[in-house]
Structures are given as C-alpha cells and as structure tokens.
C-alpha cells in the first residue's frame, strides 16, 4: 500500500494537528499497525465471509453487506479510539483486540419490526461481547424503546438521527478469536445512513445546509419505514382475515355435509319406524267379527260356540256355517239347451205324466175290489188324458235362474257351504 502522508491524512478526515497531538500517537507507529493489518486482511475477509453465510440462514434477513477495514480507515479508527480513551495504549500487540469493528457486517431486513427475529438468532448462534446497543432518535415512540429494553438492549438516543442495533460478536474458527461488528438496520435506515456518511461523515463537513437536508431525509426515511410497517401489518391482517374466511367457509361446508347426513339418517329412521309400526299393526290385527264375538257373551260361551262351529266346518260335519264368499268365476251356470232338445224334453215329460195318470187309475180300480167295496165310477175314463203343455223356457230364464241361485261360499277351512241366507231376487235387467 502507498503510505499516505500525515498532512494529507488529516486534511482528508477533517482533523487538525492539535487533534492528532492530543492522542500522543506516533504517525509512523500507526503506519506500521496498518501495514500489519494489511498482511492479515485476507484472513479477516475469510472470517467475515463465514459469518455472513451463517447470518443469511436467519429468518427475515433481506440483504447483508459486510466490509473489512482498509489501512487508512484503520488509522482513523485508532485516532478516534485514542481521543475517546486517552489512557489507552495502542500498539501492534493489542490493536486487534481494542478495535472491534475491523470486520463490519450490516443485516438489512425489509421491515424494522423484523429485528427481533434476527436478534434472537444472533444471541442463539453467536457469543455476544458486552451489551447490545439500540440507537434511536429523540422522536421515536416510547413503545419502540420499551421493545428494545424488553430484549435486554441498552437504548441510546442519537441527536443526528442515526438508528441501528449494534452487536459485537466473537467467532473462533481456529485457536485465534476474531471480533465482528454486526448492525441491524431497516432498508430505509440503511439508505439514509449511506447517503449521510457519503455527504458528511467522510469529509467531516459541518455545513448547516447539509445538516438540514440530512435531517429532512432522515424524517422521510423514517416515514417511509413507518409506511412500510403499515403495509406489512395490513397485508398480515388481510392474510389472516382470508384464512379466517376460508376456515369459516370450510366449517360451513362441513356443517352442510353433517346436516345432509343427519337428514338422511332421520329419513332412514322414519322409514324403519314406519315399517316397525306396520309390522306391529299386522301382528295385532284380529278379524273384526271374531274379535267382537269373542269379546261378547258371559263366560266366553259365544266364543266357544264359534270355535265349535269352525271345527265342524273344517271336519265337514253338518252344522258348520262359516261363510266365505266363493269367487264369481267358480260359480257354474246352467247349460242352455237348443230348441230340438227342449221339444224332446217336453215330450218326455208329457209321457211321464200319462204313465203316472194311468198308474193312478189302475190303483184306484183295484183298491175297491180288494176291500169288497163297490167301485166308484170314474168319469171320462174312456177319454184320453189331457196333454199338459209345459211352458217353454225363456232365453233369459237361464240367467234368471243363475241370478236366483244362492251364492256358493267357502268357509275359513276351505270347505264349500251354502250359507243360511235367503236367495237373491232375480234381476229385472233383461225382463
């Protein structure tokens, strides 16, 4: 590295000779320290890269920036440390221990509220040296400072608007331990800090106009951060609401399904109950006539008579009279004779009448002789007997006889009986 001259160094960092003289440091000693650190810079870079890989695995980390101090920055850090700690002794043996931010890492979350998640991960994964410092503005709400103190942080108010949470962690990949400065800044805080350092800190400018614009930008960055927090909270609220609505809809669908299942079960139970009631009624039904007969009469005499009657009917004994109507299709109608058969039937009947008449006359003649009495004179004996004409059957006579025939009924035991009922009157339909 090219050795920068002391005058140039002081001018670049807005330091005076009096400031440097107050440190009691030798500029050549500072150059030797910076050269020693330059020789170890690659090792420090490797340590920083390893820590960054671990930090990137943490939840809510949006971006990470890290840097290893260059020799000129190291000299400035040594002078600043000596001004703050006049009694301290700085040399090649202890500068690495005294200067804690030789490796500087900035963790950048999108939202300031995510710092708590990252804080818990850092405390869990690394050894934290000293206390954690939370730098806040005077305008920050009290709730923010309470959140820091709840996590064990020391709250420090910064007049220039600087905000961050600062850690110093220790890592030891080998026997040698290294210190690493870690800062948590939101994306808006990081933007303002980088602009402010570039415009003011690097040149140590104390210009009023620059200071006013820097404070205005800090307020805008703070408002943007708050707006981002609001959007983040609104998005979380809407997401939770959508999830709740989906859960409610799923619950409604589940209740609908349950109601349908219960309605189906209820319908099934009603059908089973109706079937059970029907079977119960079928078992309990007693013929109305038999039930009435069995329930009437003293000492059950009528019921006993009915049972005897049923037994007679079943055995085919005379006296059984339990009517059961025989289907009409089983009643036999009388055969209808043709005209020729009707004439022959009439002649046969006439002859039968004549024979009966003659037989009666013969018996009448023989009867007085045998008894000794005088025979009586029979008038018109010589006359031929009168022919009695029978009335021919009318075509509808068969139907009338059929209608006049008593119904043939069947009793409870399957026996055919003619009930003791008056015959039906002939129908006048075809008269």
How do you describe this structure in short?
This protein has 431 residues and is α+β, with helices and mostly antiparallel strands.
Quick tags:
55% helix, 431 residues, alpha+beta, single chain, seven-stranded mixed β-sheet, two-stranded antiparallel sheet
User: Helical percent range?
Assistant: 40-55%
CA gyration radius, whole angstroms = 67 Å
Distance between the termini: 150 Å
> Mind summarizing the main beta sheet?
7 strands, mixed
What integer is the average pLDDT?
Answer: 77
Number of strands: 9
DSSP summary: helix tally: 13
Low-confidence stretches: 368-375, 377-383, 387-391, 399-403
How are the secondary structure elements laid out?
Blueprint: H1 6-12, H2 17-21, H3 27-55, E1 63-68, H4 71-84, H5 95-98, E2 103-108, H6 115-125, E3 127-128, E4 133-136, H7 142-150, E5 154-157, E6 164-171, E7 178-184, H8 187-201, H9 208-284, H10 288-295, H11 301-315, H12 339-371, H13 397-404, E8 409-410, E9 416-417
Parallel strand pairs: 2-7, 4-5
Antiparallel strand pairs: 1-2, 3-6, 4-6, 6-7, 8-9
Characterization of this structure:
The chain is rod-shaped and about 185 Å long. 55% of the residues lie in helices and 10% in strands. The protein is of the alpha+beta class and 431 residues long. The termini are far apart. Helix 3 packs across helix 4 and helix 8 packs antiparallel against helix 9. About 6% of the residues have low confidence. Strand 4, helix 7 and strand 5 form a beta-alpha-beta unit. Strands 1, 2, 3, 4, 5, 6 and 7 form a seven-stranded mixed β-sheet that branches.
């Amino acid at each position: 590295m090219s050795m920068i001259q002391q005058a140039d160094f002081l001018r670049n960092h807005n330091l005076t000779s009096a400031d440097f003289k107050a440190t009691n440091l030798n500029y050549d000693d500072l150059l030797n320290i910076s050269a020693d650190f330059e020789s170890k810079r690659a090792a420090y870079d490797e340590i920083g890269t390893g820590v960054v890989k671990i930090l990137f695995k943490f939840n809510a980390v949006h971006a990470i920036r890290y840097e290893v101090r260059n020799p000129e920055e190291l000299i400035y850090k040594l002078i600043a440390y000596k001004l703050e700690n006049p009694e301290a002794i700085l040399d090649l043996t202890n500068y690495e221990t005294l200067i804690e931010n030789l490796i500087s890492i900035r963790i950048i979350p999108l939202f300031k509220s995510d710092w708590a998640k990252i804080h818990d991960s850092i405390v869990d994964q690394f050894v934290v040296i000293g206390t954690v410092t939370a730098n806040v503005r005077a305008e920050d709400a009290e709730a923010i400072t309470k959140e820091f103190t709840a996590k064990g942080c020391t709250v420090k108010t910064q007049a220039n608007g600087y905000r961050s949470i600062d850690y110093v962690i220790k890592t030891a990949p080998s026997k040698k331990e290294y210190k690493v400065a870690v800062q948590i800044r939101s994306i808006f805080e990081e933007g303002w800090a980088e602009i402010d350092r570039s415009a003011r800190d690097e040149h140590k400018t104390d210009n009023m106009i620059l200071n006013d614009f820097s404070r205005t930008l800090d307020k805008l960055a703070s408002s943007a951060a708050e707006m981002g927090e609001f959007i983040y909270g609104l998005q979380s609220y809407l997401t939770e609401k959508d999830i709740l609505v989906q859960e409610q809809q799923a619950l409604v669908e589940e209740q609908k399904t349950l109601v349908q299942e219960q309605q189906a079960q209820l319908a099934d139970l009603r059908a089973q109950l109706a079937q059970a009631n029907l079977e119960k009624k079928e078992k309990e039904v007693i013929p109305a006539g038999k039930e009435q007969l069995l329930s009437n009469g003293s000492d059950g005499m009528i019921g006993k008579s009915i049972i005897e009657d049923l037994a007679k009917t079943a055995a085919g004994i005379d006296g059984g009279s339990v009517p059961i109507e025989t289907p009409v299709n089983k009643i036999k109608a009388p055969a209808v004779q043709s005209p020729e058969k009707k004439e022959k039937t009439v002649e046969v009947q006439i002859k039968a009448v004549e024979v009966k008449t003659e037989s009666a006359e013969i018996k009448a003649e023989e009867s007085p002789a045998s008894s000794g009495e005088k025979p009586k004179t029979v008038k018109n004996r010589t006359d031929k007997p009168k022919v009695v004409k029978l009335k021919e059957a009318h075509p509808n006579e068969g139907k009338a006889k059929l209608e006049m025939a008593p119904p043939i009924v069947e009793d409870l035991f399957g026996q055919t009986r003619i009930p003791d009922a008056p015959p039906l009157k002939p129908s006048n339909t075809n008269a």
